[in-house]
Amino acid sequence: MNLMNIGSLSYEEYENRTVAFHGCFSPGLLIGGFMVDLALRSLPGGALYDVICESAKCLPDAVQLLTPCSIGNGWMKILKIGRFAVTFYDKHTGDGIRVYLDTEKLQRWPEIRSWFLKLVPKHEQDTRLLMAQIKEAGCDILSTKPVLIDVARFQKKKGKPISICPQCNEAYPGEHGSICRVCAGILGYFSEADVLLPQKMLVA
Ligand SMILES: [Zn+2]
Question: Could you read off the pLDDT of 9-58 as tens digits, one per residue?
Fold first, then answer.
């Protein structure tokens, strides 16, 4: 029996796709593949599933590589809790399965443990050994737990009004107030020079 498949892919095929998708080798993305695979195998078929990632690192890419759930279509949510766990749940009933990297099970896999808990600086990490252990461990370092999700919390809000911001002229959710959040200075991510640009253009 070949336990090394991830979804419909062989481990090597999955590994190659992670590099193409993610831009580089990623231990978290390889482990994430086993996590997604385990979640999918643990769920009854036929239902429509949504996904919650408890980490923004690596895991969301595993979900997007192996399932139709993406950030863009809203079937995957990222909660920045920082735990390496993913939950697949029935979007109607909330019944789901949470898969997480089990720190107790890491005792048998010292190189994975040392990478995961950042026990050694990256340049001292034995990458070949780490990759070998990830492949050999597979689902051995994971645990699962049935969970019930509060689906109402994640339902899309429909029909909310859109406003045009009088300062930048761009559309934004009207519930944010009389101007958009960037012009209000709440969620600016530009350098100060750039923030001033739209106003300069309006004056000119
Ligand atoms: Zn604005």
Answer: 999 999 999 999 888 889 999 999 999 999 999 988 777 899 999 999 99
Q: Where are the domains of the chain?
A: 11-154, 162-203
CATH fold group of domain 11-154: 60s Ribosomal Protein L30; Chain: A; (3.30.1330)
Instruction: Using alpha carbons, list the distances in angstroms from residue 111 to 29, 38, 125, 132, 195.
Output: 16, 22, 8, 9, 46
Ligand 1 centroid – CA 160 distance (Å): 18
Distance 199 CA to ligand 1 centre (A): 10
**Centroid of ligand 1 to alpha carbon of 172 (angstroms):** 8
Taken as a whole, the chain contains a residue count of 204
Distance from residue 159's CA to the centre of ligand 1 (Å): 21
Stretch (H or E) spanning 55:
none
